[in-house]
Design brief:
Helix 2 packs across helix 5. A 6-stranded mixed sheet has the order 1-10-9-4-5-6. The two termini are 24 Å apart. It is α+β, with helices and mostly antiparallel strands. Helices cover 30% and strands 22% of the residues. The protein is globular and about 55 Å long.
C-alpha cells in the first residue's frame, strides 16, 4: 500500500449527525415482532433502507402522533430518497393496540410505515434490548389508562446497524438530514 492510500484511509471523516451517534452500541440490535398481517418481522426485512424506529402507543395524546408526523415529514423532505426510509412503530401497549388498529393508525401518517406488536412478554424483552422505558398508568376506568414511555427514535443504517438516536422534538429537517447522511454513507 502506498503512503497516499494510508493517509487517505486515516483521514476519512466520521459522519456528523444532528442526533446522538450511537454507532457500535451493544443494544438495539434486533427484534422479532409481528406486523398487522401476522407476519414475523425483524430488522433484516428492511435491509437496504434506513430504518427509523419509534416506540409508543396509538392512544398517546401528543408525543407519538407528533413523532410519527415528523417522520412522515422527513420522508417528504427527502424527495425521491424518501423511498429508502422505512418507518417502524413498535407498540408498548399490545393490550389495546390490535393489529387492525395499528394498521389504521399507521395509515394516518404514511401507508409504507410498519407497526409491530408482540405479547406483553415479547414487548418487555424488546423494550429491554432497546433501553426503552414504559409503564402503565391507571386511569379512572380499566381501559382509560395511559402509558408513560421514553420518547425518541432509533436510526439504523441500510445494513441494519443502529447508528443514531434522535430525541423527541428534534424536528423533521434534522431527521431527514441524518437519514440522508446514512443513505449517502452506504452508497
Amino acid at each position: 500500500m502506498g503512503a497516499g492510500a494510508f493517509f487517505t484511509a486515516c483521514s476519512e471523516k466520521k459522519p456528523s449527525f444532528h442526533g446522538v451517534d450511537i454507532t457500535g452500541a451493544e443494544y438495539a440490535r434486533d427484534l422479532q415482532l409481528t406486523d398487522p398481517s401476522g407476519q414475523l418481522r425483524s430488522l433484516k426485512d428492511f435491509r437496504g433502507k434506513v430504518v427509523v424506529m419509534f416506540f409508543g402507543y396509538t392512544q398517546c395524546p401528543d408525543v407519538c402522533p407528533t413523532s410519527l408526523q415528523e417522520l412522515a415529514e422527513a420522508k417528504r423532505l427527502l424527495g425521491p430518497e424518501g423511498e429508502r426510509l422505512q418507518g417502524v412503530f413498535v407498540t408498548i401497549d399490545p393490550e389495546r393496540d390490535t393489529p387492525e388498529l395499528l394498521k389504521a393508525y399507521m395509515g394516518h401518517f404514511d401507508p409504507s410505515f410498519v407497526a409491530l406488536r408482540g405479547t406483553p412478554e415479547q414487548t418487555a424483552a424488546v423494550a429491554k434490548e432497546f433501553k426503552v422505558y414504559y409503564k402503565k398508568v391507571e386511569g379512572k376506568t380499566p381501559t382509560s389508562y395511559t402509558m408513560d414511555h421514553s420518547a425518541g427514535s432509533y436510526l439504523f443504517d441500510p445494513t441494519g446497524r443502529v447508528r443514531v438516536f434522535h430525541r423527541y422534538g428534534s424536528g423533521a429537517q434534522a431527521l431527514a438530514d441524518d437519514v440522508r447522511t446514512l443513505l449517502r454513507e452506504a452508497s
